[in-house]
Amino acid sequence: MAQAIPAAETHLPQALEAFDFGGPVSEAVRYGEGHINDTFCVTNQAGTRYILQRISADAFKRPDELMENILGVTEYLGREVRRAGGDRSREALEVLRTRSGEPFFSDSAGGAWRVYPYVEGTVCCQTAETPELFAAAGRAFGRFQRLLQGYPAETLHETIPRFHDTEDRLSRLKAALEADPLGRAQGCRAEIDFALAREADCSVALQALRDGVLPLRVTHNDTKLNNVLLDAKTGRGLCIIDLDTVMPGLSINDFGDSIRFGANHSAEDERDLGKVNLDLDLFEVYAGAFLEGAEGSLTDAEIRFLPWGAKLMTLECGMRFLTDHLEGDHYFHIHREGQNLDRCRTQFKLVADMEAAWDQMERIVGRYRK
Ligand code: ADP
Ligand code: GN1
Ligand code: MG
């Protein structure tokens, strides 16, 4: 049977027509390693590059609201960057409007496309090859958090409702388990039990928020290492990308998601779990850099809860991969059978490592408490 053409490729020509890429387009190719959007790199005949994305309709139900958030946040960040004497075109994303002046284009199937100029002279890393590189990302995400401190949070739409509601993520895992539409539950009993045994943990950060111990802030919510572009010459964390999930949230989750993805030396879908280990030195490096970038804007309670951010983002992400595996891989792009289960396993291995290193993680962040 012939392979189905992905919807993004089918509608790509329409999208290429909808924007002015500064001249005739010479190439548009799949790009990057994101799990959610369909990303293309477009090059015009003069060699200028752009990032063209078909926004995932599975993840984001309201692209109009999402783009309104992104316009607001990128303009705000642009002003802050300029005020600090930075280079606006490289340190904050810029939205390129359609030929008719809209922030995105809707194709004939209802798919939403948007364009950013490509930030040249940068690198995007999939693993923390050196501690310096990881620190650079930490400073950039800490700074991002601080720069958005004054952003009017009430104007932001919730692009994915209950995105980091770990209690709800567990409920959704239970529902997927109950339905088990593909009969996959029997093949992942150990992973299901691992998650179910941590039900109480799922409430820790949310309870602290409900109790007023942790404040709600404007956060990025998807702080993987490959969502920051580093300056190719200096190694500095230059531009935070993937702003689809900028919403009110918890600072500890922004910290935690970076630890989840970066404080180890393995790929997110590594099948040899012997290679998947929490690297406490990287945890320490990142904690210092993130707090340096945040420049004192985090409260003592937020610093105290940083290890919880790491554990909960990792546990939650593992549960999300497992849920998607049970439901038939409709949310996270996969490139091979079982990939979401493999991703879940690496996350749960890291959670186990964090539990074993809990005292050390607390000691490390304790040094920064006020
Ligand atoms: P996803 O939500 O699918 O992760 P991203 O917005 O993170 O999509 O984009 C996917 C990849 O495309 C990034 O990891 C990065 O490599 C690259 N990328 C995205 N925006 C830019 C940009 N403006 N300049 C350079 N590279 C970019
Ligand atoms: C997705 O979009 P991307 O690939 O940067 C996901 C994150 C997960 C991550 C796991 C909108 O991030 O929440 O932590 O995959 N983004 C969304 O790698 O769901
Ligand atoms: Mg991304």
Description:
This protein has two domains: 7-120, 2-Layer Sandwich (Phosphorylase Kinase, domain 1), CATH 3.30.200; 131-366, Aminoglycoside 3'-phosphotransferase, Chain: A, domain 2 (Alpha-Beta Complex), CATH 3.90.1200. β8 (228-231) and β9 (237-240) form a beta hairpin. It has helices at 7-18, 63-83, 88-91, 131-147, 166-179, 189-196, 204-210, 251-262, 280-294, 300-304, 306-327, 339-356, 358-366; strands at residues 25-30, 38-44, 49-55, 105-106, 112-117, 122-123, 217-219, 228-231, 237-240, 247-249. Helices cover 44% and strands 12% of the residues. It is an alpha+beta fold. The chain is built from 13 helices and ten strands. The termini are far apart. The strands form three sheets. Strands 1-2-3-5-4 form a five-stranded antiparallel beta sheet, covered by helices on one side. It has a three-stranded antiparallel beta sheet with strand order 6-8-9. A two-stranded antiparallel sheet has the order 7-10. Adenosine-5'-diphosphate binds next to loops. Magnesium ion (MG) is lined by residues 34, 226-227, 242.
Tally of distinct domains: 2
The CATH topology of the largest domain corresponds to Aminoglycoside 3'-phosphotransferase, Chain: A, domain 2
| Ligands (ions, cofactors included) | adenosine-5'-diphosphate, 2-acetamido-2-deoxy-1-O-phosphono-alpha-D-glucopyranose, magnesium ion
Order of helices and strands: HEEEHHEEEHHHHEEEEHHHHHH
The count of strands amounts to 10
How many DSSP H or I helices?
13
Side by side, the strands of the main sheet go 1-2-3-5-4
Which regions contain 5 or more consecutive residues with pLDDT less than 50? Answer: none
Helix content: 40-55%
Could you state the CATH homologous superfamily of the largest domain? Answer: Aminoglycoside phosphotransferase (APH), C-terminal lobe
How does the major sheet shape up?
A: 5 strands, antiparallel
* Overall spatial form: globular
State the name of the first-level CATH class of the largest domain.
Alpha Beta
How much of the residues is beta strand, in percent? 5-15%
